[in-house]
Design brief:
Low-confidence stretches: 1-17, 122-126, 261-270
Mean pLDDT: 84
Helix content: 25-40%
Order of helices and strands: HEEEHEEEHHHHEHEHEEH
Structural class: alpha/beta
Largest sheet: 6 strands, mixed
Number of helices: 9
């Protein structure tokens, strides 16, 4: 089985070197309502960053701007020091959503192969029957990495929520993404499945040198698995701390009732 080419394993140099992703002064408004108000954040190769904050704080909108699903009103998004829209193709970003977007009637393997559609000639991207053998082998490696190789031939619609989310992560790996952004990836999962998925995201960062950021609403998961926590309040990063140093006072500030916005302000549609 042919293994995909992973980024270099993380180490001290990776963690202190250049950022994989930098967001500077990001601003975004919807219908006159400010959602992002000069947001700054960074993400290094080999790092797992948890984004915390109340509904309406701008977390999901920030990720959507980074991957190009929303156009920011102002600010700068850099991928390995270059503007995101001019970064070379090998500097790929992948997004994992709260609502797991898989084709339920297709197998787990076919869904993972779909992560590579951008690399295939058009005629081979039209039907799974034309996926080349090399791609299927690579997709199997990705499924094995997330513990789902044994379910490769099963239709995605028959998998549990946690299993589908792991298939979605495998699809991001097959996309050969160097940066993985996850928007509330475990909010619909039971506690055991949520723990497994967040631990997997941390492993991908630490063992394969990927830059991983996840919006979470479970501070305990962030403490156990993330390297760093960035807290958003009113569209700005007001907290940046090692995850293990996150305090109850930090959380009380981020989630204070008088800091809540209307949920629509965060545009958390998928």
């Amino acid at each position: 089985m042919t293994s995909p080419t992973w980024p270099a394993p993380p180490g001290a140099a990776a963690r202190v070197g250049g950022a994989a992703l930098q967001v500077r002064g990001l601003r975004k408004s919807f219908a006159g309502r400010t959602v992002l108000d000069g947001l700054d954040l960074s993400l290094a190769p080999g790092e797992f960053l948890a984004l915390l904050g109340a509904n309406g704080s701008g977390k999901s909108t920030a990720l959507r701007c980074v991957v190009g699903l929303e156009r920011p009103d102002a600010g700068e998004i850099l991928v390995h020091g270059r503007p995101a829209d001019t970064a070379p193709p090998h500097r790929r970003m992948a997004m994992i959503f709260q609502q797991i977007h898989l084709v339920h009637r297709r197998t787990a393997l076919d869904n993972v192969c779909a992560g590579a559609l951008g690399r295939l000639p058009l005629r081979r991207s039209l039907t799974p029957l034309l996926f080349p053998r090399e791609l299927r082998e690579e997709a199997m490696v990705c499924l094995d990495r997330v513990g789902m190789a044994g379910r490769a031939a099963e239709p995605a619609g028959r998998l549990s929520g946690g299993q589908r989310q792991r298939v979605a992560i495998a699809r991001a790996l097959c996309q050969r993404a160097e940066i993985i952004l996850a928007d509330e990836p475990v909010s619909a999962l039971d506690p055991a499945a949520a723990e497994q998925v967040v631990a997997l995201l941390a492993d991908l960062a630490h063992e394969q040198g990927l830059a991983v950021a996840a919006v979470l609403h479970q501070p305990d998961l962030a403490r156990r698995h993330a390297d760093r926590v960035t807290g958003l309040l009113h569209g700005r990063a007001t907290l940046d701390t090692p995850a293990a140093a996150l305090t109850a006072a930090d959380l009380a500030t981020l989630y204070a009732p008088d800091h809540q916005h209307h949920p629509d302000a965060d545009q958390e549609h998928q």
